[in-house]
Design goal:
Layout (H helix, E strand, L loop, with lengths): L1 H21 L10 H4 L19 H16 L15 H9 L3 H19 L21 H6 L5 H17 L2
Helix pairs in contact: 3-4, 3-5, 3-7, 4-5, 5-7
Amino acid sequence: MAAVDAAMTVRLEEAAVAHEVRTAHIRTEQAGLADALTVPLAPEWQPPAPPAYPTPVAALLERAHRRIAVGGWCAGALTDGRGAVCLLGAVREAAGGDRGLEAGAVRVLMDAIERRFGDRGAPGPSGRSVPSVPPVPSVPSFNDAWGTGRVPLRILHEAAVLADARGV
Protein backbone atom coordinates (compact mmCIF):
# COMPACT_ATOMS: atom_id res chain seq x y z
CA MET A 1 0.00 0.00 0.00
CA ALA A 2 2.82 2.37 0.83
CA ALA A 3 4.53 1.56 -2.49
CA VAL A 4 1.34 2.44 -4.43
CA ASP A 5 1.01 5.67 -2.48
CA ALA A 6 4.63 6.61 -3.24
CA ALA A 7 4.21 5.79 -6.94
CA MET A 8 1.05 7.92 -7.13
CA THR A 9 2.80 10.84 -5.42
CA VAL A 10 5.65 10.66 -7.95
CA ARG A 11 3.17 10.62 -10.85
CA LEU A 12 1.26 13.65 -9.47
CA GLU A 13 4.48 15.61 -8.98
CA GLU A 14 5.58 14.80 -12.55
CA ALA A 15 2.17 15.90 -13.86
CA ALA A 16 2.40 19.16 -11.93
CA VAL A 17 5.87 19.91 -13.40
CA ALA A 18 4.65 19.03 -16.91
CA HIS A 19 1.66 21.36 -16.48
CA GLU A 20 3.90 24.22 -15.37
CA VAL A 21 6.20 23.69 -18.38
CA ARG A 22 3.27 23.59 -20.85
CA THR A 23 1.63 26.75 -19.44
CA ALA A 24 4.76 28.82 -18.66
CA HIS A 25 4.31 31.00 -21.78
CA ILE A 26 0.81 32.17 -20.70
CA ARG A 27 0.95 35.57 -18.96
CA THR A 28 -1.26 35.79 -15.92
CA GLU A 29 -1.63 38.52 -13.38
CA GLN A 30 -2.82 37.96 -9.88
CA ALA A 31 -6.20 39.65 -9.48
CA GLY A 32 -6.83 41.28 -6.14
CA LEU A 33 -10.16 40.95 -4.42
CA ALA A 34 -10.51 44.72 -4.42
CA ASP A 35 -10.30 44.69 -8.23
CA ALA A 36 -12.94 42.03 -8.60
CA LEU A 37 -15.48 43.19 -6.03
CA THR A 38 -16.51 46.78 -5.44
CA VAL A 39 -19.51 47.62 -3.31
CA PRO A 40 -20.23 50.61 -1.12
CA LEU A 41 -19.43 50.08 2.54
CA ALA A 42 -22.80 51.46 3.59
CA PRO A 43 -25.91 51.56 1.41
CA GLU A 44 -26.84 54.99 0.20
CA TRP A 45 -30.11 56.46 1.42
CA GLN A 46 -32.74 56.35 -1.28
CA PRO A 47 -35.62 58.82 -1.13
CA PRO A 48 -39.06 57.18 -1.12
CA ALA A 49 -40.54 56.60 -4.54
CA PRO A 50 -43.11 59.17 -5.63
CA PRO A 51 -46.66 57.92 -5.30
CA ALA A 52 -48.01 56.14 -8.37
CA TYR A 53 -51.50 57.51 -7.70
CA PRO A 54 -52.36 61.21 -7.46
CA THR A 55 -55.55 60.71 -5.42
CA PRO A 56 -55.23 60.64 -1.62
CA VAL A 57 -57.05 57.36 -0.89
CA ALA A 58 -55.29 55.51 -3.72
CA ALA A 59 -51.92 56.84 -2.54
CA LEU A 60 -52.72 55.77 1.03
CA LEU A 61 -53.60 52.25 -0.14
CA GLU A 62 -50.36 52.13 -2.12
CA ARG A 63 -48.38 53.14 1.00
CA ALA A 64 -50.19 50.45 3.00
CA HIS A 65 -49.31 47.90 0.31
CA ARG A 66 -45.65 48.93 0.45
CA ARG A 67 -45.69 48.78 4.27
CA ILE A 68 -46.89 45.16 4.27
CA ALA A 69 -44.58 44.18 1.40
CA VAL A 70 -41.54 45.55 3.24
CA GLY A 71 -42.44 45.06 6.90
CA GLY A 72 -44.41 41.83 6.71
CA TRP A 73 -48.01 40.71 7.10
CA CYS A 74 -49.71 39.31 10.20
CA ALA A 75 -53.15 38.06 11.20
CA GLY A 76 -55.04 38.31 14.48
CA ALA A 77 -53.62 41.68 15.54
CA LEU A 78 -52.92 45.12 14.09
CA THR A 79 -49.18 44.52 14.58
CA ASP A 80 -47.05 41.68 15.88
CA GLY A 81 -43.76 41.55 17.76
CA ARG A 82 -41.69 41.50 14.55
CA GLY A 83 -43.25 44.71 13.23
CA ALA A 84 -45.55 43.02 10.70
CA VAL A 85 -49.02 44.55 10.24
CA CYS A 86 -52.45 43.38 9.12
CA LEU A 87 -54.50 45.13 6.41
CA LEU A 88 -56.21 47.51 8.83
CA GLY A 89 -52.96 48.17 10.71
CA ALA A 90 -51.20 49.08 7.46
CA VAL A 91 -54.04 51.40 6.40
CA ARG A 92 -54.15 53.02 9.84
CA GLU A 93 -50.37 53.54 9.88
CA ALA A 94 -50.36 54.93 6.31
CA ALA A 95 -53.19 57.35 7.20
CA GLY A 96 -51.02 58.95 9.86
CA GLY A 97 -53.92 59.72 12.20
CA ASP A 98 -56.29 61.13 9.55
CA ARG A 99 -59.42 59.15 10.45
CA GLY A 100 -61.41 60.52 7.49
CA LEU A 101 -58.78 59.36 5.02
CA GLU A 102 -58.55 56.02 6.84
CA ALA A 103 -62.34 55.54 6.65
CA GLY A 104 -62.32 56.30 2.91
CA ALA A 105 -59.55 53.79 2.34
CA VAL A 106 -61.37 51.10 4.36
CA ARG A 107 -64.58 51.73 2.33
CA VAL A 108 -62.72 51.29 -0.96
CA LEU A 109 -60.90 48.25 0.44
CA MET A 110 -64.24 46.65 1.41
CA ASP A 111 -65.60 47.42 -2.06
CA ALA A 112 -62.57 45.71 -3.63
CA ILE A 113 -63.04 42.69 -1.35
CA GLU A 114 -66.74 42.48 -2.23
CA ARG A 115 -65.99 42.84 -5.95
CA ARG A 116 -63.49 40.00 -5.78
CA PHE A 117 -65.07 37.66 -3.24
CA GLY A 118 -68.61 38.91 -2.58
CA ASP A 119 -70.82 37.25 -5.19
CA ARG A 120 -69.63 33.65 -5.26
CA GLY A 121 -73.01 32.31 -6.41
CA ALA A 122 -72.55 33.77 -9.88
CA PRO A 123 -71.24 31.62 -12.72
CA GLY A 124 -67.44 31.41 -12.79
CA PRO A 125 -65.19 31.63 -15.86
CA SER A 126 -65.97 28.02 -16.79
CA GLY A 127 -69.73 28.71 -16.73
CA ARG A 128 -70.31 26.55 -13.64
CA SER A 129 -71.76 28.09 -10.51
CA VAL A 130 -69.33 28.69 -7.67
CA PRO A 131 -70.70 27.81 -4.22
CA SER A 132 -72.08 30.77 -2.29
CA VAL A 133 -69.88 32.17 0.46
CA PRO A 134 -71.20 34.44 3.22
CA PRO A 135 -70.29 38.10 2.73
CA VAL A 136 -67.14 39.39 4.38
CA PRO A 137 -68.19 41.46 7.42
CA SER A 138 -65.01 43.52 7.87
CA VAL A 139 -61.44 44.14 6.72
CA PRO A 140 -59.96 42.43 9.84
CA SER A 141 -62.08 39.30 9.33
CA PHE A 142 -61.01 39.15 5.68
CA ASN A 143 -57.36 39.60 6.69
CA ASP A 144 -57.55 36.90 9.37
CA ALA A 145 -59.11 34.39 6.97
CA TRP A 146 -55.81 33.97 5.10
CA GLY A 147 -52.75 31.95 6.06
CA THR A 148 -50.33 34.15 4.12
CA GLY A 149 -50.28 37.79 3.06
CA ARG A 150 -50.38 37.09 -0.67
CA VAL A 151 -54.13 37.63 -1.18
CA PRO A 152 -54.39 40.60 1.23
CA LEU A 153 -51.52 42.28 -0.65
CA ARG A 154 -53.24 41.67 -3.96
CA ILE A 155 -56.50 43.14 -2.60
CA LEU A 156 -54.65 46.26 -1.41
CA HIS A 157 -53.29 46.74 -4.92
CA GLU A 158 -56.74 46.20 -6.47
CA ALA A 159 -58.24 48.68 -3.99
CA ALA A 160 -55.63 51.29 -4.91
CA VAL A 161 -56.46 50.86 -8.60
CA LEU A 162 -60.19 51.10 -7.78
CA ALA A 163 -59.69 54.27 -5.69
CA ASP A 164 -57.67 55.85 -8.47
CA ALA A 165 -60.37 54.98 -11.02
CA ARG A 166 -62.97 56.59 -8.75
CA GLY A 167 -60.81 59.67 -8.26
CA VAL A 168 -60.72 59.38 -4.46
